[in-house]
Amino acid sequence: MADEAQIKADCERIFKRFDANGDGKISLAELGNALKELGSSSQDEVKRRMAEIDLDGDGFISLEELFDFQRANPDLMKIVVKKL
């Protein structure tokens, strides 16, 4: 299993890549663009992923929320890391 520091570094790299405008949060549009880049273009999937990752419901994904998602879905995040 990858160590915690590497997992956190991977999440930070993914977050910075997805946070296109650099405001420290990933919007629905940014998530949509990122998922499209990874091969998914369904708006329903984008909305479903946003609801799944955005735990506080503010309409944005924070780095901490992405890190929590990674911990809960390590295999899915490994795929994302490989594609980036």
UniProtKB/TrEMBL annotation:
UniProt xrefs under InterPro entries: EF-hand-dom_pair, EF_Hand_1_Ca_BS, EF_hand_dom, EF_hand_pair_protein_CML-like
GO molecular function: calcium ion binding
Organism, as annotated: Castanea mollissima
Ranges for domain EF-hand: 6-41, 42-76
Alphabetical UniProt keywords: Calcium, Metal-binding, Repeat
CDD domains recorded: EFh
Keyword check for Manganese: no
Keyword flag Ribonucleoprotein: no
UniProt xrefs under PANTHER family: EF-HAND CALCIUM-BINDING DOMAIN CONTAINING PROTEIN (PTHR10891)
Name of the protein in its database record: EF-hand domain-containing protein
